[in-house]
Amino acid sequence: MNTASPSQWLEVQHRQIDRGIEDMLDGSGTLEQLGRSLDLLRLHIYLEEVVLFPPLEQAGLTMPVFVMQREHGQMWPLLRSLRGADAAVAESCGTLLQLLQIHNPKEEQILYTAADRIAAEQGDGALLKALKSGRMPAGWACAMAPC
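Now predict its structure.
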């Protein structure tokens, strides 16, 4: 994944995640492919909440970060239910894709633009490096996931 900015890198992940879910919905995907997309989505949410959101909040974007965390929390139960994919997969995938289609454009336009600005101000590439090297710990859940 050759990308020059945090926004580009994260948006590529958005497209990969969406494609895996869409393929499952249109019948061209497999449960294994869906599983990889959902694993990427969990990692993506982790990286945003642990690596990306703290500097964005420090830059004054507290409310947009809160909205994104709330939407992550709405997705988290679907991610849990899809882990043991069964006959309800299509319905859950459809709901998850609807949430992502609402969530991703806001995140890309507001937070990722700000992330690129912060990364440029820092000038050391640390934010992008942290995003690329981040690994989600076992058992981690997003900030607003229901208990």
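The radius of gyration is 15 Å.
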